[in-house]
Amino acid sequence: MISDVFIRRPVTSIVISVVILLIGTISILNLPVSQYPDISPPVISVSGIFTGADAQTVEQTVATPIETQVNGTPGMAFLQSNSTSDGRMSMNVTFEVGTNVDIAALDVQNRVSVAEPVLPEQVQRLGLTVRKRNPTILMVAGIFSPQGSHDIKFLDNYANV
Q1: Are the C-beta atoms of 76 and 50 separated by less than 8 Å?
Q2: Which residues, other chains included, contact 73 with Cβ-Cβ below 8 Å and sequence gap of 6+?
Q3: How far is Cα 132 from Cα 92, in angstroms, rounded to an integer?
Q4: Does the pLDDT value for residue 157 go beyond 90?
Q5: Domain residue limits, the chain
Q6: Max CA distance (Å), the chain
Q7: In terms of Cα–Cα distance, which of 52, 51, 81, 78 is closest to 65?
Q8: What is the dihedral sign for C-alpha 158, 39, 94, 48?
Q9: Beta-ladder partners of 90
């Protein structure tokens, strides 16, 4: 039997294992990943700081003018903004799946530039940051209970420990 060959010749089994490992590594590096379809929508992040302002002031003087300009960008699915009590504003502009992220980032940057003159001087001086975000990692590992013996809360706690 083939198992007897590998038991009697451990060096041969190690060499075969290393060869299989090398072939697998080479194959993974040559996979045409760029040909896979996009499954997650592109996201552009806009952030700014208004030092010394509370959340309501940041919302009214920074977030609202930017939202007004960015809203209606071609291919935009939805927009989410967050203003914090330490003067930070962050906004995520999510686009439809298949939208070119470079063009979307340029569109958002241009619209933010249009909104800049109406922003407070301190925000203009510190500047606004427009970045492409890549939310392509949707799920790294999936955990489930094969017989349904554990509920979702247990599995969530198990995964986070």
Answers
A1: no
A2: 93, 95, 104, 107, 108, 111
A3: 10
A4: no
A5: 2-35, 43-133
A6: 81
A7: 81
A8: positive
A9: 47, 82
| Amino acid, res. 30 | N
The DSSP secondary structure of the chain, one letter per residue, reads: -HHHHHHH-HHHHHHHHHHHHHHHHHHHHT--GGGSPP-S--EEEEEEE-TT--HHHHIIIIIHHHHHHHTT-TTEEEEEEEE-TTSEEEEEEEE-TT--HHHHHHHHHHHHHHHGGGS-HHHHHH-EEEEEE------S-----TTS-S-HHHHHHHHH-
pLDDT in tens, 133-153: 876 555 667 787 888 888 888
Q: What is d(CA 135, CA 39) in angstroms, rounded to the nearest whole number?
A: 10
The alpha carbon of 93 is separated from its chain's Cα centroid by a whole number of angstroms, namely 12
Class of domain 43-133 (CATH, top level): alpha beta
pLDDT, one tens digit per residue, over 53-62 is: 999 999 999 9
Which residues, in sequence order, are CB contacts of 84 under 8 Å at separation 6+?
A: 55, 58
- Tokens (6 digits) for 101: 């992220």
